[in-house]
Design goal:
This protein is an alpha/beta fold and 374 residues long. It contains twelve helices and 13 strands. A hairpin with a 2-residue loop joins strand 8 and strand 9. The longest helix has 18 residues. 41% of the residues are buried.
Length: 374
């Protein structure tokens, strides 16, 4: 009997900030790291002969912890990477839904004919899943493995094992972050013992936004267009300044300050919408006291109905993504001075900036694998 525990990666940046993240590599969250520790503890007394993983950071950080706990060296495999969504990788989910609606409609209506502009097709993913599965089965006959991979890759792999028609792949549940599925080969036959088990996760470590209309929670973003946003800019700027205890600016002052930001980078003034209504705004700029390694998210506004409920994490995701696009190493922010901002910032591993007691920074570059990727 050969056993393979297939495990979805921990909560990554894309999960928390609701951004498309497949081959695009991002950070893991503090919640994600706790999920990894819970997974390690779950398997502490389970014999494992090998640990395989995608080389994406959100996958291999759990593989590293489990492998170390078992005295093993993790094996990183490109074939275990997530599918590629091509040109929309890294975009906010809301922008994917806004800009690429026809592709999403096609993929939702035709699960066996999934394809992405500039990315993978269902056929390509299925061939890759079958190849890595049979490679591991051949090399590890009679052994027990753990394999860390990604949601859609695991869904197609498990669908292949189950033998369902590809049109019915939606019957397969890949589960929450770090969810465990067990595939067993016995006498040459494969079957799924269980899928998507998260018994190792306490309720607070399980998925947020697990119910309701998730599409409605994804906020599209809009850069500053004064023909469209002049009044909105003035209104949100006044609310933001009120939040900081500052007097409101005149319309001319507000517009001039915004244009100075967008002259540095068009993404430095960005509005967030939900269900067609504007609900938030973020300001970024270059900080005169910080070097070129730092991007600076100076301030943000989110309406009261959504603050502190993880919607504002989408604004933080925009800031992190913008810092990477500028080839910065760090994203700097002000230290939180309210509970909603504190909750948002604590989802990531921010640190104090030496010599700047009022600022925090986040290293936006994911750590690389420490072993060869094959």
């Amino acid at each position: 009997m050969t056993k393979i525990y297939f495990v979805r990666h921990c909560e990554g940046e894309g999960n928390a900030t609701r951004r498309s993240q497949t081959l695009y590599d991002g950070l893991i969250t503090t919640k994600g790291f706790r999920q990894c520790e819970a997974l390690r503890d779950r398997f502490h007394d389970v014999h494992l002969d090998a640990v395989y993983s995608s080389d994406s950071y959100r996958a291999h950080v759990a593989a590293d912890l489990v492998a170390e706990d078992h005295g093993l060296k993790p094996r990183y495999r490109k074939l275990l990477r997530e599918y590629s969504v091509g040109v929309w990788d890294g975009l906010a989910n809301g922008d994917v839904r806004r800009i690429f609606a026809k592709y999403l409609e096609h993929n939702n209506a035709n699960p066996g004919d999934t394809w992405f502009p500039g990315g993978d097709t269902y056929d390509a993913i299925e061939r890759r899943a079958a190849a890595i599965l049979h490679e591991m089965l051949e090399e590890h006959k009679g052994e027990t493995l753990m394999v860390l991979s990604h949601a859609y890759m695991l869904q197609i792999l498990l669908n292949y094992v189950a033998g369902y028609p590809r049109e019915e792949s939606g019957r397969i549940s890949y589960g929450d972050n770090t969810a465990v599925s067990l595939v067993v080969e016995e006498e040459g036959k494969l079957h799924i013992e269980f899928m998507g088990d998260v018994s190792h996760l306490t309720p607070e470590l399980q998925r947020s936004f697990s119910t309701g209309d998730r599409a409605a929670m994804d906020m599209p973003t809009y850069g500053l267009d004064l023909n469209e946003h002049r009044q909105l800019l003035v209104e949100m700027d006044a609310k933001l300044r009120q939040k900081r205890g500052l007097p409101a600016q005149s319309e001319e002052e507000c517009v001039a300050a915004a244009l100075a930001r967008t002259a540095q980078n068009r993404d430095y003034v960005t509005f967030f919408y939900q269900l067609g209504e504007p609900v938030g705004m973020i300001y970024m700029r270059r900080h005169e006291a910080l070097d070129d390694e730092h991007a600076f998210a100076e301030d943000w506004y989110m309406d009261d109905a959504r603050r502190g409920k993880e919607y504002d994490l989408q604004m933080l995701g925009h800031a992190i993504h913008t810092a990477r696009k500028e080839n910065r190493r760090y994203l700097a922010i002000r230290k939180p001075d309210n509970e909603a901002d504190r909750l948002m910032v604590e989802r990531f591993f921010f640190e104090e900036i030496p010599g700047h007691s009022d600022l925090l920074r986040l290293d936006v570059i994911p750590p690389a694998c420490q072993r060869p990727v094959i």
